[in-house]
Model the fold of this input.
Amino acid sequence: MVAPRVLKRLNKLRNSLEHDFVSPSRDEVEDFIDVASLFIELSNGLFRMYAWQFAVYDKQTYGDKNGFQVNLNRDDNSMEVNMYKTNGKVTTYVVRPGEHEYIP
Done:
């Protein structure tokens, strides 16, 4: 986590640039970029922790044999939908980037 004094210093630098039109030094700009890069990397790590799979079943009526499951593949941005029917049949659809069903 970035220390509050670093954020205060960077905010002061930003305000000076935005309101007083004072150009920052190269070192100040590099510090700002480093902190922004750390924030982006931390944010990406947090988003990776979210579920990339979910399922919906009517367990009360049909148990876990009727419903659907969605898997989101982070590697190729595809989406796989498995539909489970009461007769035991599973139908799978895969949608990949570039296909007309795919909505980014």
The chain has a mean pLDDT of 79.
